[in-house]
Amino acid sequence: MNTSGERHEMVKNVKLISIEGDAFQIPISCCQSEVINCELECHSSEDENGSSDEAQNGTDSFITLSLTASKIHSSALRKVADFMMHFEEEEMTSFSPPFTTENLGEIVQQWYADFITTGVDHSLLTDIIAAANFLSIQPLLKLSVLAMSININGKSPETLRPMFGISNNLNDSEQKARVMKENEWAFEARRQFEENQAQE
User: Fold this and answer.
1) Mean pLDDT, consecutive 10-residue segments, the chain of 200 residues?
2) b/e map 151-171, b = 16+ CB within 10 Å
3) Residues 135, 71 contacting (CB under 8 angstroms)
4) Which one, of 31, 86, 40, lies nearest residue 63 by Cα?
5) In this structure, are residues 46 and 83 in contact, taking their beta carbons and an 8 Å threshold?
6) Sheet with 23-27: strands ordered across
7) Which among 75, 84, 114, 174 would be 20 to 30 A from 65, CA to CA?
8) In this predicted structure, what is the pLDDT of residue 170?
């Protein structure tokens, strides 16, 4: 399944750079990211106008997208790359609430259930959600948000507060602003999910 459309014939891969400077190279045919695909479209336009340095130098086998400004860490970007590579081979089963189970293996294929749970702690899962949201990879965003909702379901406020860096003083305006800033992915993910549901 190629969601990236027709690209410049010499561009085969996209190289993603994490905040730590680590590079992850994936075939453009695997890119489910709307952000990456927009970059590829811009790159193709530059090539047509003769303004791409890589094209002029004949080294245009891949394009590089630095994600340092988005603060995407290597651990999360590695998961993003793995997800897109596997999604190309086996598309994830589509799902939507309500759910009758919290067993991810009964909602999506076992590979995806293991992918988002095995060796993935709260911090990494939060980073994956932020990365999927920033890159606009809807299947990964839906999966990771679902995993997060299962993880926090039924937990007491006392358990959740330290997970999200929230103290007991809910009247602290500065803290409210900080928590909303650090967890803005959750609000954006919910907005996108509701929009997708309305379109369906």
Assistant:
1) 47 85 88 79 58 43 72 93 95 90 94 97 93 92 93 82 70 66 62 57
2) beeeeeeeeeeeeeebeeeee
3) no
4) 40
5) no
6) 23-27, 13-17, 62-66
7) 114
8) 57
pTM of the model: 0.73
The rounded distance, in Å, linking the Cα atoms of 140 and 133 is 9
* CA gap 122, 10 in Å, rounded: 40
Contact assessment for residue 60 and residue 51, using Cβ atoms and an 8 Å cutoff: no
97 exposed, middle or buried (CB, 10 Å; 0-12, 13-18, 19+)? exposed
Q: Cα-atom radius of gyration of the chain, to the nearest Å? A: 19
Give the pLDDT confidence score for residue 169 in this predicted structure: 60
Q: Which residues in 129-150 are b (16+ Cβ under 10 Å) and which e?
A: bbbbbbbbbbbbbbbbbbbbeb
Read off the tokens for 167: 């103290």
Residue 94: burial class (beta carbons within 10 Å; 0-12, 13-18, 19+) = exposed
